[in-house]
Amino acid sequence: MAIRERLSGNEATAIAMKQINPDVVAAFPITPSTEVPQYFSAFVADGTVDTEFVAVESEHSAMSACIGAQAAGGRAMTATSANGLALMWELLYIAASSRLPIVMAAINRALSGPINIHNDHSDTMGARDSGWIQLFSETNQEAYDNMLMAHRIAENPDVMLPLMVCQDGFITSHAIENIELLEDDKVKAFVGEYKPQYYPLNKETPIAVGPLDLQPHYFEHKKQQAEAMKNAKKVILEVSEEFYKLTGRKYGLFEEYKTDDADVVVVLLNSTAGTAKYVADQFRAQGKKVGVIKPRVYRPFPVDEIAEALSKFKAVAVLDKADSFNAAGGPLFTDVTSALYSKGVFGPKVINYIYGLGGRDVKADDIEVVYNKLLDIAKTGKVESVYNYLGVRE
Amino acid sequence: MSKKELKTVKPDVNWREITPGGVIDSSGNAHLFKTGDWRSMKPVWNTEKCKQCLLCHPVCPDSSILVIDGKMSDIDYDHCKGCGVCTKVCPFKAIDFVEEA
Asked: Is residue A65 within 8 Å of residue A25, measured between CB atoms?
C-alpha cells in the first residue's frame, strides 16, 4: 500500500535519497536546492541513513567528493542549482567521461547574470553536452519517481553514466503537493545494490582511474561514451516499465497529452507542461485540436521517437525556458528541429518561444497566445517569425 | 590471491574493448608507455669523464639514469624525454646534450 503524503519537491527528493540510502552525499547549499541536503543532513544526524555526509566548501568540491566516492566503489549523490552547477562544470565532464554513475538533484534556476534566484532552465541546459543523462520532472511526484529510477538507469552496465533529475526551482521544489511514496523496503528492493565492475578499493583487482588519455585512445573512449548514452534510452524504458509494474505510474521518453487527433502541439519541459495541459483542456472544450508533448528524457534526446510523434501535426511550438544565444532559437528547439530534419520529417511548421526566463510567471494567457498562433499557422501555412520571446515587454 | 597477468592497453584496441573511462586495470605497467619519442634533445653519456658521483640519478624525472650495483650503467632512451636536467647537474660535464638526429 503506497503512502499518501503532501510534500514539497525538495522534501520529496530528500526522502527519495533517504530511501536510496547512498554511501556518500556531498553538497553545498544554494537556492533553491538548499533544502535537499538540509533535510538529508537531518536524516544523517538522526541516524536514519548510513550515509557519510561531506559538508564541502564549494560545489566544485561537492562534485569532486562525489567523483572520489563513486570511483572508490560507493554510491554518491548531490544536489545543486544554477551557479552551483556552473561551478561543478569541469567535474561534470570528468564524472561522465570517467563513467561514474553519480546521481544529482538539479533544482532548475536561472544562471546569473544579472543575478536571479528564480526558475528557468539555463543552468541544466548548459550541461546538456556534459555527458550526463537528464530527466525532467513536471511535478513533485515525477521528481520523486525519477529519483527512484535514477540509479537503476545510471548504474546499468551498458550505461554507467551520471544522471541529473531536474525539476523547477520554487515552482515544484518549494510548492507542497499531494504525493504517493513507496515503502522503504520496496524502494530498497527496486534500487538494489551497486556492484561496479571496476573500483580502486577492490583488492582483488586494483586499478588506476583518470589517467592521461592521449591521441591513441581518447577518441575510442569518447565513442564508447557516446554508445553508452545511446544505450541509456533502452535502459530508461526498461526501468520505467518495471517501475510501472511496481507503482502503476507510467513513464516514457516523453508524455503526449491529447495529441491523438491534434492539429497543433506545444513541446515543453517541466512544470509549465501543467499549465499547457490546462490550456489544452480549455481549447479542446471549444473544439480546437491542440495537445502537449512533454519530454521527460532530454539526454539522451529521443530523436527517432520525437520526430515520429511530431510528424503528424500541422504546426508545433517548442517552448524553451532558456536561450542558446545562437541568434536562432533555444536548445530544445534546436534539438527538436534537428531531429525532424535528420529523420526527413518536413511536414510540420515549427516555431520557437523563449519563455519564463528568470522566473517570469507564465500564465494560461501566455500559452493561449502560443496555441492561437499555431492554429493560425496551421490554417494559413505562413510563419512570420520562428524565434520569439513569449510575453516580453516590447 | 593470484597475481593478475600484466595487461597492456594496445595501440590498436577498439572502442568496444578499451577499458571504460580510461581505467588502467592492472598495476606496474607505466614502463610500457614509451615516452622517448617525445625527445628533441638527447643526453649523451661520456664514460671517460664520468666519476660515478650519481648526482644525475635522483634528479631525473623519468627514472632514466639506469644504475646497477651502485654505478650508472646507461641512459634509458625508451623513457628519457630529453629535459636536460642531468646535463646541468653533472659537475664533470660528462653528459653532453645534443639534438636528436
From this structure: no
Residue A269, burial from CB neighbour count under 10 angstroms (0-12, 13-18, 19+): buried
Please, which residues have CB within 8 angstroms of residue A211's CB and are 6 or more apart in sequence? B22, B23, B24
Minimum distance, in Å, between the CA of residue A95 and any CA atom of chain B: 9
Q: What are phi and psi of A162, to 5 degrees?
A: -70, 160
pLDDT band at B7 (very low <50, low <70, confident <90, very high): low
pLDDT exceeds cutoff 50 at B1: no
For chain A, list residues with pLDDT below 70.
Answer: 1
Output DSSP code: residue A174.
S
* Nearest CA distance, B20 vs chain A (angstrom): 7
Q: Quote the pLDDT of residue A206.
A: 81
How far is Cα A194 from Cα A22, in angstroms, rounded to an integer?
Answer: 10
Can you read off the three cell numbers belonging to residue A23? 554511501
Give DSSP secondary structure letters for A189-250: HHH-----S--TT-TTS--B-S----TTTHHHHHHHHHHHHHHHHHHHHHHHHHHHHHHS--
Q: And the C-alpha cell for A357?
A: 526566463
What is the three-class DSSP state of A94?
helix
Between A38 and B26, residue with greater pLDDT = A38
pTM summary value: 0.92
**pLDDT score at A116:** 97
Instruction: Grade residue B6 by pLDDT with cuts at 50, 70 and 90.
Output: very low
With a cut of 80, say whether residue B15 has pLDDT above it. Answer: yes
Nearest to A250 by CA among A160, A141, A345: A141
Q: Domains of chain A by range and CATH?
A: 3-247 (3.40.50.970), 254-389 (3.40.50.920)
Sorted by where each starts, the structural domains of chain B and their CATH numbers stand as 34-99 (3.30.70.20)
pLDDT at B8: 58
Other beta carbons less than 10 A from residue A264's beta carbon: 27
Q: Which of A160, A206, A208 sits opposite B20 (nearest CB)?
A: A160
Residues 139-168 of A with CB under 8 A from B: 160
Residue B3 has pLDDT above 70, yes or no: no
Give me the residue from A203, A207, A223 closest to B25, CB to CB: A207
Sheet of A133-137, strands arranged across: A52-55, A24-27, A76-80, A103-108, A163-168, A133-137, A297-299
Is 80 exceeded by the pLDDT of residue B94?
A: yes
